[in-house]
Structure formats: structure tokens, C-alpha cells
Amino acid sequence: MSLATAGQSRAFDGDPESWRVAAEALRIRYAALFDPMLAIGTSDLEPLPHQIRAVYGELLPRTPLRFLLADDPARARRSCGLYVKELILRGDLARCLIVAPGGLVEQWQDELWDKFGLRFEILSRTLIDSAVEGQVFEQHPLLLARMDQLSRNEDITAMLERSDWDLIVVDEAHRMSAHYFGAELKTTKRYLLGQLLGRITRHLLLMTATPHSGKQEDFQLFLALLDGDRFEGRYRDGVHTVEPGDLMRRMVKEELLTMSGTPLFPERRAYTVPYELTDAEQDLYEAVTQYVREEMNRADRLKAEGEGRRGNTVGFAMTVLQRRLASSPEAILRSLERRRDRLEKRRREMAAVAAGGTTSEQPLQRRLDDLLGRDAEVGIDDLEDFDPAEAEELEEDVVDAATAARTVAELQIEIVQLTDLAELARRVRNSELTASGRNSVRS
User: Cβ neighbours of residue 348 under 8 Å, at least 6 residues apart?
Assistant: First the structure.
């Protein structure tokens, strides 16, 4: 392209197709000046009023952006996709990184492509190995990454620290937690990742449907990821005031409307349906509940004695056991039997070690550490980050083997309890099978 001099005549004999393409590119570049909601018209999406207000009323006017979007996860993803596409169309975004739990990255990838035509790559070991000179973040400007993949791998974190982004989005951001223990601040690897992400990006958008865990000082630490100066130091009731209205937008389902102004969700009416237990079922329920209560108390003692990871694992096992109790007699029977058999095997192993032998089974906590990482905040409740089959297998392992018992004698006591509970569950199961058989004969 050259500047035409005044008075010079033009032959207009250039390539018309090239001219049309250039004119169209220029039109698209400046389209946002004429259509301030261009992303809506160019996406396969029917946005809701609250999504339009979130993107065009809250997110876009803030430059640079430091914001917390607390909305329903599926709708928040679409609001985010709308925001990303609008920034791209306005020429304000070339590099975007979206960080999400492992189980959500593929959902993000599918929705960004299907709804907005945005092709994001998923950060994987193959992608990293194929990058020239390891510059994977520089070579892929639109990227999806798993949260724990970034926080636990020091090599990837080092590469990430050398990169820069126009926008970083963090889904399920409440997982980036920190806590005070006395006067000492305990930061997790995920929290440190959140701090790093804030340093290497111009726009930072955190997303979570559960921003507040009920602890005000933890909430202040979470908000410090958005504004470290404003929320510096430990929260003290009556001294500090956390007013994040200018940093976050939170919508509850009751406030969401359609374009016609009608409620998006029908009114929720919950009713408790009573279910009459037989005497045998009631006995089983109370016996298992008492066992779970006792084990929970022992798990709390482990935490108080500094074995927080083990206490959390035992607590999770007991929670799943109680859930199966409400499922069916068959489910609780199988769980009790498997747990009894696993603990019996461990008792024999412990006795063999005490007699100078060796054990062939890797301790449960070590296997969990290998899978979940040794980071303090990574617990058994993070199973959703794993493949469903792997998560189910790991859950079974925890329910079967996690115990607060420390000695052979304590294990033997728990095994006797489980034997009695399994026998009680078997009687309930058999009585229900007998009753079912009689009913089928009558019918």
C-alpha cells in the first residue's frame, strides 16, 4: 500500500478481490465501534439479561480487569466466552489462558468452540514436548490448562512465570485458598499459582459459584488475589471491613430472568418425604451411625495431633460409608465386608512387620500422596480432578482402607465392630429379599 499523491489519476485496475478482502478486514476491525455487542451477533448463543449485564456492564468497562464472577458454573462459562470473544473482536486480546480443574477443561474447550468459534488448545505433556525450545506458552496464544498441572509441576510453573497474557481466567477459583494458623499464614500451591497468574496478565477474571466459605479472614485472603494492597494482612473483626462490591458480581438463581422478564428457574419447593424404617433397618442405621460417629471423633483427634491429611482421609471414608448406608442394605453390606477384609489384611501385615517381616502393600496415604500430590491443600475431596474410573477406584480404596487405628490391637477392635455390623446388614438384606419374594408370589 502506498500514499497517492494529490492530482494523480488512478486507473482502478487493481485486483477487486484483494480490495474486497482488505475492506472487509478493515470493516471487521472497526465493527465494535458501530455494534457494541458484536460478540452476541457472531456467536451461537442466546444470552440472558444477567449475562449481558455482566459482560457489557461489569467486565468490559474495567481496564485493566480484576474481577470475581460468582455465578452458576455453566452460565458463567458462557459469560466468559462472550467476554473473550468481544475482547478479540475489539482487538484488545491476542493471548488468553483459561485455568480450570482437570475434569472441566474439555467442557471449556467444547463450549468455546461450539458457542463462540474459539479454538483453545489443552495444555498436555504432548503439547509441551512438541513445543520448540519448550516455549509452549508463547506458541499457543489461546490455551486451556489444568489447575493442579500448573501448581504442582515446577518446570511448567517456571515456564509460565516467563510468559505474559492479555487475559487469564480461573474457573473454580475458590480452590486457590490460604489460611491463617495462629499468626502464621499458610499458603497452598494453588494460592501461590493464583498470585503468579495475577502478576503475568493484564486482565484477571476469577470464577466460582462458592466464593465465601463462611470464614471472613479466608475470604479476605482470596480477594487479595485480585487486590493484594487493599486486602493485605490478616482480617480482624471490627477493624477490617471487606466490601468487595466493586470487585465481584454475585447472582442467585431467584434473581435470574429470561428476556421476557419471567423467572429463569421455576420456584423451588422442597418437601421431606418420610420413609418408615423397619425395626431391623432402624437398628442397622443406628449401629452404623454410631460407628461412623466414633471414627469421626478419632479422625478429629488425628487432626488435633498434627495428622491433618490422615484425619481428612478417614473423615472422607466415613462420609462415603454413611452415604452408602442411605443407599441400600446391599450397598452398605458390601462396603462393610470389603472394609473388614482390607483391615484384616492390614492387621496381618502389621503383625508380620512387628515380628521382623516386611509388608507388600503400599500404605494408603503414600498412594494418595503419589496421586494427589503432597501439597497441603490437595485432599481426597479433589477426586473430581481425575478420570471418573480412576476416581471411583481411589474412592473405593479410601473407604476400604482408611482407618484411624494405629496399633494391631486397635485394628482388631475395629475389625470386630465391622464383623458385627456386616452381620446386621446381612440380616436386613436377607429379610428384604424374603419379603420381596413373598410379595412377588402374591402378585
Answer: none
DSSP H/E element including 143: strand 142-146
* Superfamily of chain region 32-247: Tandem AAA-ATPase domain (3.40.50.10810)
How many whole angstroms separate alpha carbon 292 and alpha carbon 129?
Answer: 47
> Mapping DSSP to helix (H, G, I), strand (E, B) and coil, where does residue 344 land?
helix
DSSP result, 381-438: GGGGGS-HHHHHHHHHHHHHH-----SHHHHHHHHHHHHHHHHHHHHHHHHHHHHHHH
Quote the CA–CA distance of 307 and 26 in Å, as a whole number. Answer: 63
Q: How far is CA 211 from CA 16, 205, 254, in A?
A: 55, 13, 18
* Residues with Cβ within 8 Å of residue 132, at least 6 apart in sequence: 139
Cβ burial, residue 382 (10 Å; 0-12/13-18/19+): buried
- Is residue 99 a contact partner of residue 150, using CB atoms and an 8 Å limit? yes
Q: So where are the chain's domains?
A: 32-247, 279-436
Global pTM value: 0.68
Which residue reads 461412623 in cell numbers?
292
Residue 78 main-chain phi, psi, to 5 deg: -70, -35
Residues 300, 280: Cα–Cα separation, whole Å = 30
- Location of C-alpha cell 412377588: 440
Question: Which of 120, 74, 58, 397 minimizes the C-alpha distance to 265?
Answer: 74
**Digits of tens for pLDDT over the chain (443 positions)?**
566 666 666 667 788 899 899 888 887 777 767 778 888 988 998 888 888 989 999 999 998 999 999 887 778 899 999 999 999 988 899 999 999 998 899 999 999 999 999 999 999 999 999 988 878 999 999 999 999 899 988 999 999 999 999 999 999 999 898 888 777 888 888 999 999 999 999 999 999 988 887 778 888 889 999 998 888 777 766 555 667 778 888 776 667 777 777 777 777 788 888 878 888 889 999 999 999 899 888 888 877 777 767 777 788 788 888 888 888 889 899 999 998 998 898 888 888 877 765 554 545 555 555 544 444 444 445 555 555 555 666 677 777 667 878 888 888 999 999 999 999 999 999 986 655 554 443 44
Phi, psi of 257 (to 5 degrees): -125, 160
Please give the Cα distance from 257 to 52 (Å, whole number).
12
β 165-171/201-207 pair status: parallel
Read off the C-alpha cell for 239.
Answer: 477493624
